[in-house]
Specification:
By secondary structure, the protein is of the alpha/beta class. About 35% of the residues lie in helices and about 25% in strands. It has a domain of about 90 residues: ANL, C-terminal domain (GMP Synthetase, Chain A, domain 3), CATH 3.30.300. It contains 17 helices and 27 strands. The strands form 8 sheets. A 5-stranded mixed beta sheet has the order 4-3-5-6-7, sandwiched between helices. The chain has a 4-stranded mixed beta sheet with strand order 2-1-11-10, sandwiched between helices. Helix 2 packs across helix 6. The chain is globular.
Length: about 550
């Protein structure tokens, strides 16, 4: 079996030339032939800018057909893609562009208007994501309007033919992309994803997600700059000839409902928050009604009632999907138990950016509630425990999907692996006799945002602790919100004659200032004041687990 991701991508384009590849909901649709033309256009432009094989090209913007085509074009042309989450702050974007050593930036209008052009002056080329127009270029000739399409017309005066496609020949250990797991300057870790990891995830989807066939429809909701959405809403589908629809409007519940009803996807990839909101807002209120309480006591009616609720929820998501795959964050136990009880078609998987991302999965037919599936093909897992079935230990993994390491961070890379080469996930779990993995907690303190974004509380706490009259802080999840637990600097308040009754108002101002510099998913929504110091270990570290 050929372990070349780009070979699969090229074959898919050749085999599905006249099928639809990407659509912006309510906008343009692009065929696989259009996709091929775009790859060739960007390739010629980057070559003209003087890029060499292996150079880095950063891309940032909201999900769209053009984002997808630009992303794949970067790799198909032999360069390393650096996707950046669109809700990172400008300082973080500047930092990632410099840290990754990107030579080119492809950026949407909305993001470009927030950036400092002078901070990006060293780039060889800056392009408009929407149409490849040049924003800045070292090469004077490339500053001409429409230069990208002129270069294409010169190389292909008649039309692009199948035999004209010349993709980069990737190697399994070759670096394909760098995924940044945090947007905070100075703390960003760039996960180096090799081509074998992209191939491993894609091949798993090809072997097991049989519902994905040429011409079928899926909807992309999760940010493509995050590995979960990129892998199983986009790059696996592209290699199978699937038609991907992008929600380009603000994904309100109404917009999502309309889009699912219109396109009726065959597979749904979701983070828990999406299903939890639907269930809690649309279904749980009914479950608490007197009517349901009465009907639920009748054995014959109870089964019919659950079937009707399941049908309602299924129809709300288009009514045409094989299953909903949940991942990216911990799934609420109450919601999952309810979905299992009514027979809803769902399963839960587990992964991490460092595995591009998949580690475990189980089909809905074999999924064991409460678990996160079983280890996937070409991967292994073990529990660092004397009794993995009963005693919790760290989940460790190795295999085709595992990263090369962290870019320019040998210390973090060394810490991420055991002496015998297994990747430390930082998660705690057990594994039953049938191989089902159960996550029991997180040894790392990392929190997960609503779309699976990584949130590092120590980074946020470091910033909070620098604010007026904050002595100590902890950032925790309360439901789906980030909450700051604050112990005031009582000595400083006493010195400045600040009354304790004033501290609540001070913290409101502190949070307003703090949130201004954070991406949306890392904003702290509330605070709780602790008059006593947080409990400490002998090393003076806060006993975080006491406050989760």
């Amino acid at each position: 079996m050929e372990q070349s991701f780009l070979s699969h991508l090229r074959k898919s384009i050749e085999n599905h030339w006249n099928l639809s590849a990407f659509s912006d909901d309510g906008g343009e649709t692009y065929s696989y032939a259009d996709f091929a033309k775009h790859i060739e256009t960007l390739k010629l432009l980057l070559e003209a800018a003087g890029l060499k094989q292996g150079d880095k090209v950063a891309i940032i913007g909201k999900n769209s057909s053009m984002w997808a085509m630009n992303f794949f074009s970067i790799m198909a042309s032999g360069y390393v893609a650096v996707p950046i989450l669109h809700d990172f702050k400008p300082t973080s974007i500047h930092h990632i562009v410099h840290h990754s050593e990107a030579k080119v930036l492809i950026v949407s209008d909305a993001i470009w208007n927030t950036l400092e052009a002078d901070e990006l002056a060293d780039l060889l080329l800056t392009l408009r994501l929407e149409n490849l127009e040049v924003r800045q270029a070292k090469e004077v000739r490339l500053q001409e309007k429409g230069i990208a399409y002129r270069l294409f017309a010169e190389r292909h005066p008649k039309a692009l033919r199948l035999e004209d496609l010349a993709f980069h020949q990737d190697q399994p250990e070759e670096l394909a992309l760098i995924s940044y797991t945090s947007g905070t300057s100075g703390f960003s870790k760039g996960v180096m994803i090799p081509y074998r990891a992209l191939w491993g995830n894609m091949q798993f989807g090809k072997d097991h997600l049989k519902v994905l066939r040429p011409g079928t429809d899926v909807i992309s909701i999760l940010p493509m700059a995050h590995m979960y959405g990129l892998a199983f809403e986009v790059y696996t589908e592209v290699c199978l000839g699937v038609h991907i629809h992008f929600i380009t409007r603000t994904p309100s519940p109404q917009v999502i409902a309309e889009t699912f009803k219109r396109h009726r996807p065959v597979l749904i990839i979701a983070v828990p928050l999406i299903l939890e909101k639907i269930v809690r807002k649309s279904i749980f209120p009914f479950l608490q009604s007197k009517k349901y309480q009465i009907l639920n006591r009748l054995p014959i009616v109870k089964g019919q009632l659950h079937h009707q609720i399941c049908r309602k929820l299924t129809d709300a998501l288009g009514g045409n999907f094989y299953e909903v795959i949940i991942g990216g964050a911990a799934f609420n136990h109450e919601v999952e138990s309810f979905l299992h009880r009514i027979g809803f078609a769902y399963t839960v998987g587990y992964g991490m950016t460092e595995c591009a991302p998949l580690i475990t999965y189980a089909d809905k037919k074999t999924y064991v509630p409460g678990s996160v599936g079983r280890v996937i093909d070409r991967m292994e897992i073990r529990i660092d425990s004397p009794d993995p079935e009963n005693v919790v230990g760290e989940i460790q993994t190795r295999g085709v999907n595992v990263m090369l390491g962290y870019y320019h961070n040998e210390e973090a890379t060394s810490h991420a692996f055991t002496a015998d080469g297994w990747l430390r996930t930082g998660d705690l779990g057990t594994i039953d006799k049938d191989g089902n993995l159960f996550i029991r907690g997180r040894s790392k303190n990392m929190l997960l945002g609503p779309n699976g974004q990584n949130i590092y509380p120590e980074e946020l706490e470091d910033q909070l602790n620098a604010l007026p009259y904050v002595g100590e802080s902890l950032v925790v999840h309360r439901g789906d919100k980030l909450v700051a637990l604050i112990h005031p600097d009582l000595d400083l308040m006493d010195k400045d004659n600040v009354q304790s009754t004033q501290f609540s108002e001070i913290m409101k101002q502190n949070l307003e200032h703090f949130n201004h510099g954070q991406p949306s998913y890392a904003k702290v929504k509330a605070f709780q004041i602790f008059q006593d110091e947080f409990e400490k270990t002998p090393k003076r570290s806060i006993k975080r687990y006491l406050y989760q």
